[in-house]
TrEMBL record:
Keywords: Aminotransferase, Pyridoxal phosphate, Transferase. InterPro entries: Aminotransferase_I/II_large, Class-I_PLP-dep_aminotransf, PyrdxlP-dep_Trfase, PyrdxlP-dep_Trfase_major. Residues 33-377 form the Aminotransferase class I/classII large domain. One of its GO terms (biological process) is alpha-amino acid metabolic process. This is Aminotransferase class I/classII large domain-containing protein. Transmembrane segments: none annotated. Gene3D superfamilies: Type I PLP-dependent aspartate aminotransferase-like (Major domain). It comes from the Eukaryota. The keyword Ribosomal protein does not apply. The keyword Oxidoreductase does not apply. Its cofactor is pyridoxal 5'-phosphate. GO terms for molecular function: pyridoxal phosphate binding; transaminase activity.
Amino acid sequence: PDSVEIASGMPSPDTVPYVSATFKCKDGSELHIDEETMKRITPYQKTRGMPDMIKWMTIIHKEFHNPPKMGAAEDGSQWGVTLCPGALGGMDYLFQEIMRKNDVVFLDEFAFGGTKKQVRKNRAVYVGLPMDGDGVIPDKLRDYLDRWEEVSLPFANGKKLNKPRVICMTPVGQNPTGVNTPLKRKQEIYKIAQEYNLLIVEDDPYYYLQYSETPIPSYQALDVDGRVVRIDSMSKFITPGIRMGWISGPEEIISNTSKHMSLSCMSLSCFTEIAVVKLFDNLGIQGLRDRVKYLRDFYRERRDTVEELVRKHLAGMATWTTPTAGMYLWLNISGTNDSMFLADKELCKKYKVYVVPALDFACDTTKKYSQIRICFA
């Protein structure tokens, strides 16, 4: 305590121009950052996050997921958490840790483009798993694993591909299909993951946008082995521009993932972290529950409005399944096997409506698809 610090390369706090700050919220509350707090947060911060932020992440997971590995014996499989610069940034660091050249990663049949790019960035290969109205089909997953040598031939291109070790899914309000995987289906897939020793990456930014009074438990809530890594996002929970996500799961993987981040951005912005900490401190756990209810009701109302308009104007021209979570409606266009014409730039400009064709999300781009995604957020 009485030592003189001349070792670290920490800039002098006397040069920091900020003294205090105040965030005004829609509910009229003000979140004040005083001078003492500003002095504490403006030096370099820990890669995994400020202690107060990590405390809130732990509270949130205990409240909404209650992972079996939380508080377990410290053997590397116990639950851990780290912040990351948005869910996609976190995925970048995580994939660096768990993927190697010529690895094969299972994805949803239709997957977020950023996820596919992250797999390719790590010189790995993705394979889309067939889906139905409940998400990835367990029997198809098992079949692909059992017949891997045969299944992999069409896309191996002469390379020796590693047997899949990772399956990455968006099980709630899936982007783009809007599918919400029920508990029984999750239990079936988790059992297969146990049998074949798969790591499940639960990319779940829409978890808090489930419309039912009782949300479907996450894969992490089922994880007795320490084989589930969750990626969460503040983009849908608070706001996209705050660029905060968090990754949680087996401590060994989380620790190594944070090391990749430490060699890049090192940590999140101190202002981002303290803004969220102050908001959560102000809300408290009951306020967070109320926030989830608000998001649920808001997006459910949006879905109802858009679905009513689709019924009115697209009757006989499209079919769909009513989404029970998320922000997307997945329309199957009747009378065509290729929806790409709806993404024609001139057509979109003319009618001032922009949609995303299924091909943009498809893992298998050799086929044609009749679906489009519309966002009702």
